[in-house]
Amino acid sequence: MTSPDCSSTQCNCQQHVDRRKFLGRTLAGTLATAAAMSGSMASAAPSEAPVKAKTDPNKRKFMEEATRLAIESVEKGWGGPFGAVIVKDGEIIGRGQNRVLLTGIPVFHAEVTAIMDASARLNPKALLGSEYGAGTILEMIPRESGSPDPVPERARMLKGCEIYINGAPCPMCMSAIYWSRIDHVYFAASLKDTSQIGFDDAFQYEDFAKPWADRRIAVTENFERDVGLKAYEAWMAKKDRHPY
Ligand SMILES: [Zn+2]
User: Which residues, other chains included, contact 69 with Cβ-Cβ below 8 Å and sequence gap of 6+?
Assistant: First the structure.
């Protein structure tokens, strides 16, 4: 946690030291990527901005809508400046905006909300007790050839969709995107941009790379494993289980 008197990003509290270290590494990674793409280390002039993605007027409107949602959230006091849209076949099928301040729910992020909105739209009926059949996002599709997926088929989810986010996704939202099987993420502002307006997403990415015991939040692993595994056994014993 930041100490109460710690307002300067140049101070030496652990959080700010870690942050500078992390951002330094991010910058180094960006430069290495830029150099690799250009084929020459010499051409990688020091720059804090990542390589700019190619402009696409057909897709820019989606980023503009994500940003509109983000600004609305700020102006109405609903949450942080974050918005997201999910696009399928060139159409917006889901919208989300940060509503943490409106709801008091810490995980009410734009991307998760957009995923829930798109999923509700793609599911023509309530799923509980249904056959999970065709026409819902739980329809099974085979794994792609060469995929390391341990099961031969699993639910389609939002495969075939793209997500546009005005700022880099936090690890929770990025994970939600993995669960949703979204094909492509477009984000505008970087993690560093997000850090500079006071949000700590970058730290979480760094923390995830550490062993459990070194994380910022205390984690006790292998705690009563025999108890927890009973649920896994129930899943494996279920004949009609539905991988997703
Ligand atoms: Zn998030």
Answer: 83, 84, 85, 95, 96, 97, 110
Q: What is the largest CA-CA distance in the chain?
A: 61
pLDDT tens by residue, 201-241: 889 999 999 999 999 999 999 999 999 999 999 999 999 88
Q: Specify whether the CB–CB gap between 191 and 205 falls below 8 A.
A: yes
The identity of residue 176, as a single letter, is A
Tokens 């995929």 appear where? 147
Q: How far is the CA of 120 from the centre of ligand 1 (A)?
A: 19
Task: Decide: residue 12, CB within 10 A, 0-12 exposed, 13-18 middle, 19+ buried.
Answer: exposed
Q: Give CA separation, 141 vs 87, 154, 183, 204, in Å.
A: 20, 6, 15, 33
Q: What's the predicted TM-score (pTM) here? A: 0.76
Place of tokens 């996002």: 137
pLDDT digits (tens, 9 = 90+) for 82-102: 999 999 999 999 999 999 999
Is 17:11 a contact under the CB 8 Å cutoff? no
Q: Are strands 161-167 and 184-189 parallel, antiparallel or unpaired?
A: parallel
The residue annotated as part of the active site, out of 48, 111, 144, 224, is 111
Say how many Å lie between the CA of residue 103 and the centre of ligand 1.
15
| Structure tokens, 92 | 């917006």
